[in-house]
UniProtKB/TrEMBL annotation:
The entry's keywords: Hydrolase, Magnesium, Multifunctional enzyme, Nucleotidyltransferase, Repeat, Transferase
Any one Gene Ontology molecular-function term assigned to this protein's record: phosphoric diester hydrolase activity
Residues covered by the HD domain: 447-569
Activation and inhibition: Uridylyltransferase (UTase) activity is inhibited by glutamine, while glutamine activates uridylyl-removing (UR) activity.
Cofactor requirements of the protein: Mg(2+)
Uridylyltransferase: region residues: 1-328
Name of protein: Bifunctional uridylyltransferase/uridylyl-removing enzyme
Keyword Magnesium: yes
């Protein structure tokens, strides 16, 4: 338990307003001193002392029982307060309170709020504290850091003694470890989010606090120097822990001051100002925020490594009976506590060729949890041995290829290689992208973390337990020879980001050099290099070009040349998109890629790029579904004869069957038909619109979505042969609490009513705000309008930051110029949109109108 900071002799006053003003002035002075001198402890300890003083005064004015004590718990109990942290207090009673005591306690807590303090309070007897602590590890942790502020010392001493007696260090260690794993899982077990939580994310302050909680409970020590004295860490490790803790505390404190509130997430809005306050300077090739974040990622990585070492050493002391050798792997490595441990501390220094061996063992040995603290420490001490000679050694190159080629464990091995910095020392260009941010509005991870996510996704295609996620990818992977080739391509596909120039072209050179150095045969080398060069091509064709055009398919088929390259590119593309952000991938994008794969495969097999073959297959599948629903034979013909090839290629069989069932009796309807159903994507809605086409139709639909708070994630616009619009929208409500099912009926009724009003004027678009990410990293709006190769339509391409009302703003401009929309493909890529519209209208042949249209569109999509 911590000693009291505030003596009982503090002068007391009941003047709440005066105390509040005093506290506010003291806080402002402490923050001013902190900004001038940068001493975090002076600020955090000073704030705690001032809060102690005013709470002690309030306590005295409320005349609480003589046997009661006011106790600080949690972070406040440590005597530390970040500028906008909450104040956790415990009113500790000797016996259960009577009505008068309850009234006085309520008055005291109310005074705390009146003082402007964000008070988190609990009122318990000693016995209640012990019961709560026994049942809840969070309460146990909070009480572990308790500190008496004022009140009865004997009551607090009784509580402290009984709490310490009841505390089981082993059970506490186990509970806190499980709690940490759950917390890390919330952050995808990675500190490399582009907006990490500097307190809660892996490698954050909470990890360091957790260690001190455990060692305090076990009475091993309360500081890094005490843990060093006990032999749990080395002098260097204690120094590094203190340095990184200091940086994280400084970062968090500045973040609070800058935000003017409790703020632990390093949001984009504040990163630049925060970096400047921390003294980082901009460079010609790197923003000041990028430099700060890279420093943060390296600090979080170091904390993760050092925390792993410490926790293993603590576990060995708490559970000595499990710390014996359970298996001998070789003369250099054994298993202890489920970890790979070195036999000699200097083995990596003496024999650098053994550095990669534990990672290979990790893959090959089921049940192994990782590398022991002793092994991790030895790897760090051998870092100078990982030089150019080590990288060029044939033995190490062979070992690295063995790691890549293992049938299992590649994901965990590569993550471990990265966490220990061995991967960056083996592949120097990989080291350059560790902690490198990406400002393309749809990646949510640093470059190195994205690469490892892509590699993980490819591996999951090969694991039977994950076959339900992407069955088609799993099917293709099962028949793919030498899947390790895909791992190599994944490692290099983005490795050249941030160097300037085309990262695909630069990455090719890195990939070719790697393949040559590692004796990869010519066929596989060419595949790896080609995949790195074209890793963006398939998604661009699927999302931006018309796959019903035989020429598009013919060109793509000539590029891929054979089925192996096509399959490899498809698998890498799916894994890549899935590794950018959970928001970017959806079922519609998956269908576009799969359709492109299947059509191209038929062409590679000798078939002509005949869209009618795909049409027939899709139609047969849809008819089978309709027959299962007992639909009358031939009832679909009236609708289908009005639909072109492109419609059938853009929909899968289940969607065609659904739309046919809803529309086949209304082919010539004068009344708008609107149908909605929950989509495959979480909490989104698929909306079908069927109505006689008119120039302002698309704008009218988008207007309804805009003013109803509905965001369009994807859209497929079709025009039938007899002049009807058959449009599909994937929408999402701005309120995440509102389920898609709740709004389906509302959308059907309201949108149909809106489309019935032919002469209604188009309202102004809503002034939707950009997201924080888009405001911080604005994309340059781009508009491109040009005739297609046949001169039949004009293709309008639009790229901009996404925001509410954007699609309607575009549609409104087109409607005002009476420009017809034949088809469209709406792509929402994280915080950016890339939309393609197929337009018709004789006015488009006028060059002056084209310029005017592009100018107005640029103005409409600009912020």
């Amino acid at each position: 338990m911590n000693a009291s900071l505030a003596p009982d002799s503090i002068p007391h006053t009941a003047d709440t307003a005066a105390m509040r003003a005093e506290l506010k002035t003291a806080k402002a002075q402490l923050i001013e001193t902190f900004l001038a001198k940068g001493h975090v402890e002076t600020l955090t300890h000073g704030l705690a002392r001032h809060v102690d003083r005013v709470l002690a005064s309030a306590w005295a004015s409320c005349a609480l029982p003589a046997t009661a004590a006011l106790v600080a718990v949690g972070g406040y109990g440590r005597g530390e307060l970040a500028p906008y942290s909450d104040i956790d207090i415990l009113v500790l009673l000797d016996t259960a309170p009577d009505e008068e005591t309850e009234r006085r306690v309520e008055r005291f807590i109310g005074m705390g709020w009146d003082l402007g303090l964000d008070v988190g309070s609990s009122v318990r007897t000693v016995e209640q504290c012990l019961d709560e602590a026994a049942n809840d590890v969070t309460v146990r942790t909070s009480l572990l850091e308790s500190r008496r502020i004022t009140g009865d010392d004997a009551t607090y001493a009784r509580f402290a003694a009984q709490f310490r007696e009841a505390l089981d260090p082993r059970a506490f260690f186990t509970a806190k470890l499980l709690e940490m794993r759950q917390r890390h899982a919330k952050y995808q077990d990675s500190p490399y989010s582009l907006e990490p939580n500097c307190k809660e994310s892996p490698g954050g302050l909470r990890d360091l606090q957790l260690i001190i909680w455990i060692t305090r409970a076990a009475e091993f020590g309360n500081s890094w120097s005490e843990l060093e004295a006990r032999g749990l860490i080395t002098e260097r490790e204690a120094r590094e822990l203190a340095r990184n803790e200091g940086f994280l505390k400084r970062l968090r404190t500045h973040l609070h001051v800058l935000a003017g509130r409790r703020q632990d997430i390093l949001v984009f809005d504040l990163q630049t100002a925060l970096a400047e306050r921390l003294g980082f300077k901009a460079k010609p090739t790197k923003r000041v925020s990028e430099q700060m974040m890279r420093h943060y990622y390296w600090a979080a990585k170091a904390v993760t490594q050092l925390a792993t070492i410490l926790l293993q050493n603590i576990e060995a002391q708490l559970f000595p009976s499990t710390s014996k050798i359970t298996r001998v792997f070789s003369e250099h490595f054994v298993e202890k506590q489920g970890m790979i441990e070195i036999v000699s501390d200097d083995v990596f220094v003496r024999e650098p060729n053994t550095i990669l061996e534990p990672f290979l063992l990790y893959e090959q040995t089921p049940g192994i949890k990782g590398l022991s603290a002793r092994t991790l420490r030895a790897l760090y001490n051998a870092r100078e041995k990982m030089d150019v000679h080590w990288r060029r050694d044939p033995v190490n190159r062979k070992l690295f290829m063995q790691i890549i080629k293992q049938p299992a464990g590649i994901t965990h091995a590569m993550r471990l290689l990265n966490q220990t910095s061995v991967l960056g020392r083996y592949l120097l260009n990989f080291r350059r992208i560790v902690g490198q941010m990406q400002h393309d509005l749809y990646h949510v991870y640093t470059v190195d973390q994205h690469i490892l996510m892509v590699l993980r996704n490819i591996r999951r295609f090969l694991v039977p337990e994950h076959a339900h996620e992407y069955p088609f990818c799993s099917q293709l992977s099962a028949d793919f020879e030498r899947p390790w080739v895909l791992y190599v391509a994944a490692l290099f596909h983005d490795i050249a980001k941030g160097r300037g120039g085309d990262h695909s072209t630069l990455g090719m050179a890195d990939a070719r050099r790697f393949c040559r150095d590692h004796d990869i045969d010519e066929e596989d080398t060419e595949l790896v290099v080609w995949l790195v060069q074209h890793h963006l091509t398939m998604s661009q064709i699927a999302q931006k070009q018309d796959m019903s055009d035989p020429e598009v398919i013919k060109r793509f088929a000539s590029l891929v040349r054979n089925e192996r390259r096509l399959t490899a590119l498809y698998l890498l593309t799916v894994a890549d998109i899935r590794g950018t952000s959970p928001k970017v991938w959806n079922a519609w994008k998956g269908k576009l890629l799969e359709d492109l794969y299947r059509i191209t495969l038929r062409v590679l097999g000798g078939a002509k790029p005949d869209a009618h073959a795909a049409l027939k297959t899709r139609q047969e599948e849809a008819l089978t579904l309709l027959r299962l629903e007992a639909q009358p034979e031939g009832a679909h013909l009236a609708l289908w004869k009005q639909l072109d090839v492109a419609y059938f290629l853009r929909q899968d069989a289940s969607e065609i069957a659904w739309q046919t069932r809803e529309l086949m009796r209304h082919v010539e309807t004068p009344t708008p038909i609107v149908r909605a159903r929950p989509a495959a994507i979480s909490n989104s809605l698929q909306v079908l619109v069927y109505v006689k086409d008119r120039p302002d139709l698309f704008a009218s639909i988008c207007s309804y979505f805009d003013h109803s708070g509905l965001s369009v994630l994807d859209a497929q616009i079709n025009t039938t042969r007899h002049g009807y619009a058959l449009d599909n929208f994937l929408i999402e409500h701005s309120d995440p609490e509102l389920h898609a099912r709740d709004i389906a009926n509302l959308v059907e009724r309201q949108l149909a009513d809106a489309l019935s009003q032919h002469d209604a004027a188009l309202p102004e678009p809503s002034k939707g705000r950009l997201s924080r990410l888009s405001r911080t990293f604005p994309a340059t709006p781009r508009v491109d309008l040009r005739a297609d190769e046949r001169g039949q339509y004009y293709i309008l391409s639009v790229s901009a930051n996404d925001r509410p009302g954007l699609l309607y703003s575009i549609a409104r401009v087109l409607a005002q110029h009476r420009i017809g929309l034949h088809a469209a493909r709406i792509n929402t890529l994280g915080e950016r949109v890339e939309d393609v519209f197929l337009l018709h209208g004789s006015a488009l042949n006028d060059g002056k109108l084209q310029i005017k249209l592009e100018t107005e569109l640029l103005k409409a999509i600009a912020v």
